[in-house]
């Protein structure tokens, strides 16, 4: 374990963001007390304080940090209308897109696994359908339609968004998928998801994914290709058929990963890592870690948000940015213990989204208690 004191930037954001980040930071403090923290503004709270969703101070702090932990941004109060001009102000989500672009966080890794087998009974899908489902969504994060040119509604009543991909953008995200595939023996199959029957950008995607894997990773089996619409159907009908790496572009990955959270039972469960390179390699990668969910304005301030997705994101931070694999495992084991049924030695604690009545804080405290027991 490194003895230096790495700096982690906390971007609490909006809505339930501060509630879930508080618990994840508590967990990090328990498992790795040497980490230093600094809180900075992003999103709606940054707009209110500074006028912009990504203040320069936040960006500079993130650039010099070892890693970043984010809650979520956005809410119905933004964009705000200027009282005199009636002009709409910036959107919190712009800040998130900007920080991803500025830090070149092109690889978004979203593992869809059951943090505890006891959750098999809480999935809205049938137990026999979801049992054994386990895949990783590898989402391209700095290209595609979220970053293309756009035209807001004009006088002709038209609006459009342009989806652009380039060969290097597709090559580099394919390399991340290949790297993750090769971490297991046998390698996890790579399923590339696109809409190549309609979109030119998807036809480029399919060609470049196939070629990059064939040329640079000849030992890997060739990828399979799945159209995004039928992929969405398979995900809830027979998710085990997708076991492996789902490699896809920005918007498809955004949508499919929210759908994937239905398998373990809640959007509040799944973590993510946004990286600018291959994790665990010789080069230091920049990493921003966040749950896959949004700011959940409908439950903000009630203290009932599920913090597990953020806590598991903190585990990914320990693993990918700080090289603290043992500590990452301790956090994951502690989360499992908290969720596991009492009959199998766990606490059986669940927030409302999973049918329980535990608060956000109780889950965080329980994870900390389990960490202390594991480390004792
Ligand atoms: N990474 C980010 O910062 C993201 C921000 N957003 C923003 O969040 C705002 C709300 O978007 P929505 O479409 O409502 O998506 P959302 O993910 O915030 O919420 C969807 C549903 O899931 C529930 N939910 C989400 N997280 C939960 C948690 N941790 N525990 C329990 N229940 C949870 C919410 O209560 C809501 O019913 C929007 O402004 C959107 O732009 C959305 C997605 C990602
Ligand atoms: C601003 C959005 C693209 C955020 C989002 O939905 C996500 O990254 O999951
Ligand atoms: Mg999303």
From TrEMBL:
Domain of life: Eukaryota
CC cofactor: Mn(2+); Mg(2+)
Reactions listed under catalytic activity: (2R,3S)-3-isopropylmalate + NAD(+) = 4-methyl-2-oxopentanoate + CO2 + NADH
Gene Ontology molecular function: 3-isopropylmalate dehydrogenase activity; magnesium ion binding; NAD binding
Record EC number: 1.1.1.85
SMART domains cross-referenced by the UniProt entry: Iso_dh (SM01329)
GO biological process: L-leucine biosynthetic process
Subunit structure: Homodimer.
Family: Belongs to the isocitrate and isopropylmalate dehydrogenases family.
Protein name according to UniProt: 3-isopropylmalate dehydrogenase
Organism per entry: Physocladia obscura
């Amino acid at each position: 374990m490194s003895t230096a004191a790495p700096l982690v930037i906390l971007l609490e954001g909006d809505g339930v963001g501060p509630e879930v980040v508080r618990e994840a930071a508590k967990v990090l403090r328990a498992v790795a007390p040497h980490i230093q923290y600094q809180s900075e503004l992003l999103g709606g709270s940054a707009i209110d304080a500074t006028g912009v969703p990504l203040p320069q101070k936040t960006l500079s702090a993130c650039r010099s940090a070892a890693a970043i932990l984010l809650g979520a941004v956005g809410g119905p109060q933004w964009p705000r209308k200027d009282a005199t001009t009636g002009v709409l102000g910036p959107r919190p989500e712009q800040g998130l897109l900007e920080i991803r672009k500025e830090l070149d966080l092109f690889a978004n890794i979203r593992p869809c696994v059951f943090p505890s087998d006891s959750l098999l009974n809480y999935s809205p899908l049938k137990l026999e359908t979801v049992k054994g489902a386990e895949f990783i969504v590898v989402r391209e994060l700095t290209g595609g339609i979220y970053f293309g040119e756009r035209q807001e509604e004009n006088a002709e009543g038209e609006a459009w968004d342009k989806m652009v991909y380039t060969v290097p953008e597709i090559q580099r995200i394919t390399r991340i998928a290949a790297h993750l595939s090769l971490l297991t023996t046998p390698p996890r199959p790579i399923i590339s998801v696109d809409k190549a029957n309609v979109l030119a950008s998807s036809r480029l995607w399919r060609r470049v994914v196939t070629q990059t894997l064939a040329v640079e990773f000849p030992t890997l089996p060739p990828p399979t290709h799945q159209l995004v619409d039928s992929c969405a159907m398979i995900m809830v009908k027979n998710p085990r058929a997708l076991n492996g790496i789902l490699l896809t572009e920005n918007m498809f990955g955004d949508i499919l990963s929210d759908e994937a959270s239905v398998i373990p039972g809640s959007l509040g469960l799944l973590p993510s890592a946004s990286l600018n390179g291959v994790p665990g390699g010789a080069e230091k990668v920049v990493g921003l870690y966040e749950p896959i969910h949004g700011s959940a304005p409908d439950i903000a301030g009630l203290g009932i948000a599920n913090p597990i997705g953020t806590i598991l994101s903190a585990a990914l931070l320990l693993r990918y940015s700080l090289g603290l694999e043992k500590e990452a495992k301790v956090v994951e084991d502690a989360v499992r213990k908290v969720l596991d049924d009492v009959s199998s030695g766990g606490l059986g604690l669940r927030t409302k989204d999973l049918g329980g009545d535990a608060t956000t804080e109780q889950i965080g405290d329980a994870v900390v208690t389990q960490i202390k027991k594991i480390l004792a």
